[in-house]
Amino acid sequence: MARPKKENRKDDILEAGLEVFADKGYYNTTTALIAEKAGISQPYVFKFFKTKEELFVAALDRAYERILQAFEIEAGPKDLVNHMIKVYEELTESNPNEIALQVIGLSVTEDAIRNSTRSGLARIRNHTLEKFQSAGIPNAEDQVTTFLARGILCNISHFINMPELMDDGGR
């Protein structure tokens, strides 16, 4: 049987990290738990990621990149927001660990993780603002702020399993 390629092992570790971080949080996760989840030895994790923090940042960056890719939508001002909400809801269902990681990333105080969170949110904000402006959405800056605030609230609602935070009363 052929050994998995090195890149596949790195991805396996990243996916295991996503799952364990989402379940246990940043501070309660160890590289030993990630290695166990990936079915490898703990030292093998360090072949790809020097620290737990580096692995978390890589996973968080992946989550933000996936959002940016999902938001590559072309639509007019009447449909853009609804289309973006729809693809984000689909992303939440298909990648719940990444959604959890975003919420966890907001609470971690390590500089590298804060910087990754800042950078990821800034990239999403800027991308969304460009989309809103090019679609001709009035008051694009204010609309983006509201859109992102609702997105973060949606993430928190999903993370703590409290859907009533996002209940719009059937509106």
UniProtKB/TrEMBL annotation:
Domain HTH tetR-type: 7-67
SUPFAM superfamilies, sorted: Homeodomain-like
Ranges that cross the membrane: none
Origin superkingdom: Bacteria
Location of the DNA-binding region in this protein: 30-49
Molecular functions (GO terms): DNA binding
One Pfam short name: TetR_N
Keyword line: DNA-binding, Repressor
Stated name of the protein: TetR/AcrR family transcriptional regulator
Source organism per UniProt: Peribacillus castrilensis
